[in-house]
Amino acid sequence: MYDIQSIRADFPILSREVNGKPLVYLDNGASAQKPQVVIDAISHAYSHEYANVHRGLHTLSTIATENYEAVRGKIAGFLGGVAEEEIIFNTGATHGFNMISYGWAMQNLTAGDEIVLSVMEHHANIVPWHFLRERMGVKLVWVEPEADGSFDPARVVEVLNDRTKLVALTHMSNVLGTVVDIAAVAEILKPRGIPLAVDGSQASVHMPVDLTTLGADFYCITGHKLYGPSASGAVWIKSERMAEMRPFMGGGDMIRTVTRDEITYNDPPHTFEAGTPGIVQMIGLGTAIDYMTNIGMANIAAHEASLRDYAQDKFRALNWLNLQGTAANKGAIFSFTMDGGAHPHDISTIVDQKGVAVRAGHHCCQPLMQHLGVNATCRASFGMYNTVDEVDVLVDALETCHRLLG
């Protein structure tokens, strides 16, 4: 049984008020709140077990190293049981895609080669490829979603050619909620030998992910969306692709020896983890993954699907609300505008007076905004602790907003 009240009680911030109203936090697509066990794990690590990792032989360093390295196995298991050596720690998906860009693509692409993207991508999965366009002459090729926001893998086939050297796609759109059939895309690319990089920042939070069957070559996750600390995350890189990479950051821990004349590198994944890492952040992420795993990703997905369906019915009854993206296969993420020209920033400000936190803007997806023909939207994004009652509060707040601005 999914005990929503018990889960909500685990998140201390959900008991607070905002503007004299109970907080209704619907900005999970940007960053999720933290359960008390994560907060406690961070506090405990700093209060009782903090030391630098890997380099020390003293007791605290040994404890910190063991707790830190244990997270690699937790992430590997969370993503379907991949090899721990294929998990590289970082600060999140932005770090991960830059690592793929500098560490893999820069070594394997040349001027005129093409990278295929969807217009649904977050800037984290766009800007690093623009760097290659500017600096190496790589070409970016764009694939558009269908009118309802769904993504047809067949559209990828239409743009492939001999110069296609990488396809980079989101697993779940942070604006539309669209779930992309990554396995179907991988089946298209595999016989052609084209690697597939995936942004799992949203999908890994909202549904089970099994990289042993998905068919991707690279998969990025972001800790602060996974109910973990900011500046925590990881990228999974298939061992065959990791062998094609070279490190793009140099410093301590990623080397074996350093002399005046040469260096030798540490073994993967440490080859790609330079400098003192976010030790406590990663320990906190490990605790967050334990927390989600104990609840069950399938249970979380089922709860959020019920929220999605309930919210869709409520939103469709508001004939002045314009939903962006109505695909059947989508997560509990809703972007919308309002008839009458109300700016999303004004909408967000007004519903905030009801205690409702939503996001307004381009959501780091400007190519998608251009495709949709809008400058910005409001976005309500749900998480494991949200309720149908909170959907009702949001709807009531939107109705108030419509009366004031519509």
From TrEMBL:
Write the record's keywords in alphabetical order, separated by commas.
Answer: Lyase, Pyridoxal phosphate, Transferase
Which coenzyme or cofactor does it need? pyridoxal 5'-phosphate
**Is Hydrolase given among the entry's keywords?**
no
Q: Name the InterPro entries for this protein.
A: Aminotrans_V_dom, Cys_dSase_SufS, PyrdxlP-dep_Trfase, PyrdxlP-dep_Trfase_major, PyrdxlP-dep_Trfase_small
Citing just one GO molecular function, the answer is:
pyridoxal phosphate binding
* Annotated TM spans: none
Q: What is this protein called?
A: cysteine desulfurase
Organism listed in the record: Pontivivens marinum
